Amino acid sequence: MQVHSVGIDIGKTVFHLVALDEQGNIVIKKRFSRSQLLHCTSNLATKVIGMEACPGAHYLARALMGQGHEVRLMPGEYVKPYVKSNKNDFVDAEAIAEAVLRPNMRFVAPKTDAQLDMQAMHRVRDRWIGRRTALINQIRGFLLERGIPVRTGAEHLRKNLPGILEDGSNALTPRSRQLLAELRQELQQLDGKLEEVTKEIGRLAREDEACRRLTGIPGIGPIISTALTAAVGNGSGFRKGRDLAAWLGLVPRQHSSGGKPTLLGISKRGNCYLRKLFIEGARGVFARLNRSQHAFGRWMDQLESRKPSNLAVVAVANKLVRIAWAVLTSGQPYRALA
Q1: Distance of CA 161 to the CA centre of its chain
Q2: Which of 60, 71, 108, 137 fits a disulfide with 53 by CB distance 3.0 to 4.6 angstroms?
Q3: Which helix (DSSP H) or strand (DSSP E) does residue 74 occupy?
Q4: pLDDT for 195-216, tens place per residue?
């Protein structure tokens, strides 16, 4: 029995495997537990094993690579066109086995433990930031219902809230005063957690050589550099900087018909967290960069003269992504006037 490609549909505890020969005929079709799957693949000779890039896929990919297999991870949306008839786990596994050998298929590099740890830190930090924002808005809403407006901005709330709680002449009731004090304590705890995780990310960025090179680029600091390396590693999964920018959704969406291309707004595909970080970094670059000291400064001047500010910021974000890809893949530091 000659196995050409294998597709594995991943579940929490159950895995469906379909193997195809060179003619595309199914030669193996089985359902396994996790331990059974790894025992089966340890004795399986095949050209390539394909899986969708989903939770648990990176761990399983490393385990299969440890057995000597070539493992390729694919975005689920790129596998969907190969699904035939009604959807079920075996049909999905067969579609994966077919898609993994397509010459134009796009693959996801398996992440290391360090990348997964860093990605987890960023996700926790982002969730804490969202929770803090919701908490601040809730406190401001409670105060406004008592006729106590506070200036927009988290720092104004932190500065004025102690005085508001101590002021016995305002409209706060004893119950609402106690509740707001508890919310203030929760806000202080969140601030402490965010400060700790941000310091840890900064420490890891200083220890990583690729992150140190990335932080030399204007608008890129420890947060963006660690988030980027956690997501794309050394950038070798992309042929050029434009591919990375497209993966982040920072290129125009295209709709073409009858040979007439139409460019729309940015596609907003891919990693929305990284896209948000790069746009915020580009906003700082657009506002504060000394353009005479950088090779793309003149380009920014021309861009500012003919584009609205938000469009210009997104274009700068696209430029920063391309520079970051070049720095990652070349192993060379950023040269401002190169």
Answers
A1: 35
A2: 108
A3: strand 71-74
A4: 999 999 999 999 999 999 999 9
